[in-house]
Amino acid sequence: MEKILEVKDLHVTFSTYGGTVKAVRGVNFHLNKGETLAIVGESGCGKSVTSNAIMRLIPDPPGKISKGEIIFRGKDLTKLSEKKMRGLRGVDISMIFQDPMTALNPTLTIGTQLKEGLQQHRKISSDAAEVKAIEMMDLVGIPSPKERLKQYPHQFSGGMRQRIVIAMALICEPELLIADEPTTALDVTIQAQILELFEKIQEVTGVSIILITHDLGVVAKIADRIVVMYAGKIIEVGTKREVFYQPEHPYTKGLLNSVPRLDLQGEKLTPIDGTPPDLFSPPAGCPFTARCPFAMEVCDKVYPTGTTLSETHQVDCWLQDDRAKRLLATTAATTAEK
Ligand SMILES: Nc1ncnc2c1ncn2[C@@H]1O[C@H](COP(=O)(O)OP(=O)(O)OP(=O)(O)O)[C@@H](O)[C@H]1O
Ligand code: SF4
Ligand SMILES: [Mg+2]
Question: Would residue 173 be called left, alpha or beta, if left means φ above 0 and alpha means ψ between -120 and 50 degrees?
Fold first, then answer.
């Protein structure tokens, strides 16, 4: 499978008066061409910082990509000039944020904004740009697109505005679309419709998608693979089936038990007790130790570097590490003898 993006050992820090926040701490993952990769995890675990780093949108200062590589089409984005990055953003890689209003200019018609994006980057006549704008409006499900191009953002509902933002993000036919909580600002029924739209867009355009969302129901429906983040690290990654039905990290299991799931109606929900560690001075060992019911002595001392469970499934947990398994077996035998 062709890899469109490869993030290697990414570290992002923020310098603040209180010290250095180690927001992303050695993240590795890749995205295959044409797939949807979901990034999930509790608030503050580094999902947005990771995706903003790919777009090189980390405010510097206070932020900094302190280490690592972001390989997109064979080029390391961390080393590109700002000018080259500007040429890439919105063209080869597009990003959609929570609030559609911040992406739209209230003083310009939707048609002008859609066409502008295209004409800035492609040598194309106004008429051809209009044809493309209508095509995109149609793709994202806006009725009577030709007429509605003449309208202003305030003449559209929140859900329709987010559809327009998605059309804008796709009009230059990017290879990669990053959507950071694209539906949080919308009401629940509209959220579902917008997320279904991502599925359709993927089918029609073949774009590769990174989707950040709190909604595991959505992930279950539209993601191919899932990355689970905790305290600035990826603690489990796998196909949707692996992460949903054979999760191995206690945090992933906790996360799945703490939110409602369409496929497990009637199951009791259990929130994960406690809070993530302080990212000013994260622990040297597993950051989940303080909340983990299975924590062992080794856990808070040494970080459990990934165990490969299948070609697609990796987990950072001592419970899956052969060395800890041997240790556990010895302890169990000694206890049984007593
Ligand atoms: N500009 C900044 N200055 C200082 N710290 C920051 C800054 N931006 C992000 N951080 C810190 O980086 C960490 C990761 O934040 P991030 O926004 O990536 O979390 P998230 O996983 O996207 O959370 P949420 O689900 O709430 O959006 C947090 O501890 C956050 O406080
Ligand atoms: S490494 Fe230890 S503390 Fe961390 S999740 Fe696994 S068992 Fe729990
Ligand atoms: Mg975020």
Answer: left
